[in-house]
Amino acid sequence: METGTLVSLVLYFIVMLGIGLYAYRKSTSDVSGYMLGGRSLPPSVAALSAGASDMSGWILMGLPGAMFVTGFSSTWIATGLIIGAWLNYLLVAPRLRVYTEVANDAITIPDYFANRFEDRGNALRIVSALVIIVFFTLYTSSGVVAGGKLFESSFGMSYESGLYITTGVVVLYTLFGGFLAVSLTDFVQGCIMFVALILVPLVTFSLLDNPLSVTLNELNPQMMTWIGAGGAIGIISAMSWGLGYFGQPHIIVRFMSVRSVKDMPVARRIGMSWMIIAALGAVFTGLFGAAYAHEKNLVVDDPETIFLILSQLLFHPLIAGFLLAAILAAIMSTISSQLLVSSSSLTEDFYKIFIRRDATDKELVLVGRVSVALVALCAIYLAYDRDSSILDLVSNAWAGFGAAFGPLVLFSLLWKRMNFAGALAGMLVGAGTVLIWIYAPIQINGQSLSSLIYEIVPGFVLSSIAIVVVSLITDEPSAQISDKFAEYEQELNA
């Protein structure tokens, strides 16, 4: 590895760990500060933190890899995500910020569900916490896989060493600095990703010898078509990724941490501007990378590493180190967010409820730190399957959260008549549908269910139906819940 590249990466690691140390001194004395930053994030930090933790390694590896292979038909994923993120800022962000504070100052998503629906038996809390822990362990492993591929492809290290280095640095600053460290590092990482996703496609495009359309047609005419092999159903499946935003705990928890609901319009403008440019950069990296590889007879064994290959071939070692840091930033920002949300659920929704109800804040922060390490170890274990596709791992977890929590979050914020029974039914039906769609040995015309249509579509639809039907055929919410909803509406309108 070039000295310049190494210097850039070492500086990046030092900055991340320095932010973790700052956050450790600033906001980890109580459980609210450790897990939610004391609800004090400015809109710029919250927006870039949400974007960076959302995009993860798939924006620099997964999506460019899909574009490299299939061409324009993969842009529907980015289109659906942009629309979904905008609706998330519009419908969920301000409402969740207000309601979580009204609902006894809830600091985790299961905590919010339990308080919103008076979950005295903790059924909602337990099921939602289990969904978070199971799907987030899977989701976190996708980031760890990306880290392993990065260190193997770029530095000639073993895949396994890459897993431990990536996870080790993230665990250090997350374990000590908590939510504030995660959010501040996300802000820095989001800025790095933004620059990288502009720089790489622009330089690659400038080095192409022929018009893009000519090269892609020569490579594979199908790459120039907007409708892929799946036809209209394939487009629906790709765009349905946007439905997942409403139920992603590591994203919507950022809305809970903004210092004021009045900051949401600013956060939305910053977040959406960042996301649109980042998504376009990823799309063009894949397309231009495919054209460049074809023109230069460049062998690309793993399409998901095209950003890495272009970074090393086209840039000075110092710049290449910065671009590699961008990939690490994408990977680490998501891993840290997911570790913290999983840790929060283990601490607040299991340990505090079932083991030590009278635990002190100091004890809960300690348990949270231990939980971060445990979830990280589980993710590393799953990531040892080096053949795992980053995009496949992300898509499964994304669908699980989107179907289990998406309709539940939306209805809980928009529909006063929704009750506990409807919430529990919707969560179980959504998660169950996704798992059946992925793993059930059912085929139609020789195709698995998940290859016919993305599992989030049936999961989201059936979950929504379950919420409405079960809520209507069971008792209305109690007077206390109705009063809380009225208080929430009043504060939201104020």
UniProtKB/TrEMBL annotation:
Transmembrane intervals: 6-24, 75-92, 123-142, 162-184, 191-208, 223-246, 272-293, 313-335, 364-384, 396-415, 422-440, 452-474
Entries under Gene3D superfamilies matching the protein: Sodium/glucose cotransporter
Localisation per UniProt entry: Cell inner membrane; Cell membrane
Any GO BP annotation: proline transport
Entry's Gene Ontology cellular component terms: plasma membrane
InterPro entries, A to Z: Na/Glc_symporter_sf, Na/Pro_symporter, Na/solute_symporter, Na/solute_symporter_CS, Sodium:Solute_Symporter
Domain of life of the organism encoding this protein: Bacteria
PANTHER family from the UniProt entry: SODIUM/PROLINE SYMPORTER-RELATED, SODIUM_PROLINE SYMPORTER
Family recorded in the similarity comment: Belongs to the sodium:solute symporter (SSF) (TC 2.A.21) family.
Descriptive protein name: Sodium/proline symporter
